[in-house]
Write a structure and sequence with these properties.
With 125 residues, the protein is mainly alpha-helical. It has two domains: 2-63, Helicase, Ruva Protein, domain 3 (Orthogonal Bundle); 68-111, 30s ribosomal protein s13, domain 2, CATH 4.10.910. 48% of the residues lie in helices and 5% in strands. It has six helices and two strands. The protein has helices spanning 15-19, 27-37, 50-63, 67-84, 87-94, 108-111; strands spanning 2-4, 7-9. A two-stranded antiparallel ribbon has the order 1-2. The N and C termini lie far apart (69 Å).
């Protein structure tokens, strides 16, 4: 099993698909990496030699922000917005959607499970 950037890459998948298991590498970047290393697109992870795995590691280390560094960078960006007190930072702080989505209905992923308010509903006679 190949271990790249702290992630175990599944051995039976193609290299392009396997690289997408690394946070910060999607299909386009994975294809780009495979082309830089000079591997055929249909190569499986189990067929990689140690030298090829080292080459892939080097390419990723040189030109891409992945895994822990990427998560740290994202967290710092969010923290910066919150410290500034800008609108997006306030939305992050309150745990509400940041990019203008409606919250009257929906937004349950961000807001959490709906909580019933006691005595809210009026009984009609």
């Amino acid at each position: 099993m190949a271990r790249i950037a702290g992630v175990n890459i599944p051995t039976q998948k193609r290299v392009i698909i396997g690289l997408t298991y690394i946070t910060g590498i999607g299909p386009a970047k994975a294809k780009e990496i495979v082309e830089k290393v000079g591997l055929p697109a249909d190569r499986r992870v189990s067929q990689l030699t140690d030298a090829e795995v080292v080459k892939i590691r080097e390419v990723i280390d040189q030109g891409y922000t992945v895994e822990g560094d990427l998560r740290r960078q994202t967290a710092m960006n969010i923290k910066r917005l919150m410290d500034l007190g800008c609108y997006r930072g306030l939305r992050h702080r309150k745990g509400l959607p940041v990019h203008g989505q409606r919250t009257h209905t929906n937004a349950r992923t961000r807001k959490g499970k709906a909580v019933a308010i006691a005595g809210k509903k009026q009984v009609t006679k």
